[in-house]
Amino acid sequence: QVQLVESGGGLVQAGGSLRVSCAASGPIYSINTMSWYRQAPGKQRELVAIIDDHGGTDYTSSVKGRFTISRDNAKNTVTLEMNSLKPEDTAVYYCNALLVDRISIREREYWGQGTQVTVSS
Predict the structure, then answer these.
(1) Is the separation of the CB atoms in 61 and 84 below 8 Å?
(2) What secondary structure letter does DSSP report for 62?
(3) Is the dihedral of CA 29, 74, 39, 7 positive or negative?
């Protein structure tokens, strides 16, 4: 079955940098978009960054110029480089993918288990 597994994250001081990565595995036919969401305590999950299969990207305004999303289509991975981190970036970060699997040949949405990013002031 298709799985998304995240890695990275952790604790960093304000102004520091972190990287989170996500690897998709299983019977994958193609991956359309890959993205990162985050959810802070007491808040709704929000889209942070998205990258399509041609490398086109978009970011939520609060992270533009500080975060960079990239993907490796050969390895089915997506990475979020986070610089100049702020305490308000503290959240659980979730990987998301819209992909077609080889079993159903249908596009479905998949989520990773989430990884904690904590930025101390």
Answers:
(1) no
(2) G
(3) positive
* Distance separating alpha carbons of residues 100 and 113, to the nearest angstrom: 20
Q: What is the pLDDT of residue 85?
A: 98
Q: What percent of the chain has pLDDT over 90?
A: 100
Question: What six digits make up the tokens of 80?
Answer: 């979020």
Model pLDDT, residue 74 = 95
Hey, which residues does 70 pair with through a beta bridge? 79
Strand ranges inside 9-114, DSSP E: 10-13, 18-25, 28-39, 46-51, 57-59, 67-72, 77-82, 91-101, 107-111
Place of tokens 């500080």: 66
* Residue count of the chain: 121
